[in-house]
Amino acid sequence: MSDYPIKVIPPKFTQTEKQIKVRVFSIEDRTLLFTKKDSLMKHDVPIFKSINEVKTGDKIIGVVVAANEHGHIVKSFGDVKGLLTFGECKEELKPGSIVKSLVMFNKKGSGLALTMKNKTVIK
Question: Domain 11-122's class?
């Protein structure tokens, strides 16, 4: 919901029958995931229908969803996922951080290798 950690959910997001603007983040089976994060709402984020459409040098703006022993897993619109290794990170990332990155290469549809060189992080 927010690019920055918030302690209290704004009342307008807890009211029923209140209209808010959101953006579809991904569709998984029969589940729709929405985002209200300002940086994902305002940026002209490229949306790929599948990971096979992503090419080297493409810009990916996504959310850190997890970390493993190799780096951070970043998920973007259209269920596109990539790995941002710890060596490519300029600063510590937490789940929920918005990351602007570039695609180094596509691992034959199984995932993306991402870099943050010349890109920034929104905490």
Answer: mainly beta
